[in-house]
């Protein structure tokens, strides 16, 4: 197991909620406004995590049904407990093997997941397989190369100043394709048609520095996993460097930006 895999411990749903889930809910609303799907559709969500997008689809899009899948039973348990809607069904599944028949969904979506999938073309091909003719396929990923999650970008910059080896763990280095041009190339290779790729952006606000720092101490996700792996003195040095950079008085406001892609099934 690689060091990156060890640190990428997306297992504790509640910790994920504190670190990223709240921001995932924010961007889910804006994503669906941009997607503008039809009502009474049958949906499949690939990599639903703790259910941020699932819940937003149910609340805003009047779906007929939604099959939400994720490889993590811990995340699905969190989502099931939080979402009591009979239209939603949750199943453990990989992105490359969805538990659905060919051409069975009107809309297939994936939120903030595709960059973590080793074989992205196979994942898109599987999403394409379960999509009805003229169905809508869409996904979004954080703009890691462009510093699109400001609080994570600030963390890795400070971490690299304290420990140069941390640079290799920065998601901006791991996911260089998370740009408009990089995603367009992947979608073209997957044979998608009518492609549209646009940025979705909002502001993350932390009431003070401690509120900014606390999620990094929970261990769930690459940056928090790295943070808790540090010896106490190194972690204190990282915290001090971030405090110097961001300040300790008043709210901390940082951008969050994702690239969203949508296309129709090719014939």
Which helices and strands appear, and what pairs or packs with what?
Layout: H1 3-7, H2 13-35, E1 42-46, H3 52-60, E2 65-70, H4 73-82, E3 88-92, E4 105-111, H5 120-129, E5 131-142, H6 150-162, H7 171-174, H8 180-189, E6 193-206, H9 209-213, H10 222-229, H11 232-246, E7 252-264
Helix pairs in contact: 2-3, 6-11
Description:
By secondary structure, this protein is α/β, with parallel strands linked by helices. It has a domain at 3-149 and 174-202 and 257-264: Vaccinia Virus protein VP39 (Rossmann fold), CATH 3.40.50. It contains eleven helices and seven strands. The chain has helices spanning 3-7, 13-35, 52-60, 73-82, 120-129, 150-162, 171-174, 180-189, 209-213, 222-229, 232-246; strands at residues 42-46, 65-70, 88-92, 105-111, 131-142, 193-206, 252-264. Strands 3-2-1-4-5-7-6 form a seven-stranded mixed beta sheet. Helix 3 links the parallel strand 1 and strand 2. Helix 2 runs parallel beside helix 3 (52-60) and helix 6 (150-162) packs across helix 11. The chain is globular. Residues 1-11 have low confidence and may be disordered.
- Enter the CATH topology name of the domain at 3-149 and 174-202 and 257-264: Rossmann fold
What is the CATH architecture term of the domain at 3-149 and 174-202 and 257-264? 3-Layer(aba) Sandwich
Strand order of the largest sheet: 3-2-1-4-5-7-6
The N- to C-terminal Cα distance equals 40 Å
Strand fraction band?
15-25%
Shape: globular
At the fourth level of CATH, the homologous superfamily of the domain at 3-149 and 174-202 and 257-264 is Vaccinia Virus protein VP39
Number of helices: 11
Spans of at least 5 consecutive residues with low confidence:
1-11
Order of helices and strands: HHEHEHEEHEHHHEHHHE
Major sheet: 7 strands, mixed
Using the CA coordinates, give the radius of gyration: 19 Å
């Amino acid at each position: 197991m690689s060091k990156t895999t060890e640190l990428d411990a997306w297992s504790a749903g509640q910790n994920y909620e504190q670190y990223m889930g709240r921001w995932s809910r924010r961007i889910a609303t804006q994503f669906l406004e941009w997607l503008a799907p039809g009502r009474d559709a049958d949906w499949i969500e690939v990599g639903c995590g703790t259910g941020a997008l699932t819940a937003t689809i149910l609340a805003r899009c009047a779906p007929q049904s939604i099959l939400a899948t994720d490889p993590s039973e811990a995340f699905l348990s969190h989502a099931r407990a939080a979402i009591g809607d009979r239209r939603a069904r949750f199943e453990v599944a990989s992105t490359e093997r969805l538990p659905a028949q060919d051409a069975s969904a009107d809309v297939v979506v994936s939120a903030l997941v595709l960059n973590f999938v080793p074989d992205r073309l196979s994942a898109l091909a599987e999403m394409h397989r379960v999509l009805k003719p003229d169905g809508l396929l869409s996904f979004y990923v954080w703009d890691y190369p462009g510093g699109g999650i400001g609080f994570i970008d600030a963390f890795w910059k400070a971490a690299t100043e304290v420990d140069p080896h941390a640079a290799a763990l920065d998601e901006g280095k791991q996911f260089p394709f998370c740009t408009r041009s990089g995603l367009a190339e992947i979608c073209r290779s997957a044979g998608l048609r009518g492609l549209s790729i646009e940025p979705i952006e909002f502001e993350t606000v932390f009431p003070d520095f401690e509120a900014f720092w606390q999620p990094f101490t929970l261990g769930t996700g690459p940056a928090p996993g790295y943070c808790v792996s540090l010896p106490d003195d190194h972690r204190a040095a990282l915290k001090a460097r971030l405090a110097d950079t961001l300040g300790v008085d008043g709210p901390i406001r940082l951008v969050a930006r994702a690239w969203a892609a949508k296309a129709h099934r090719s014939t």
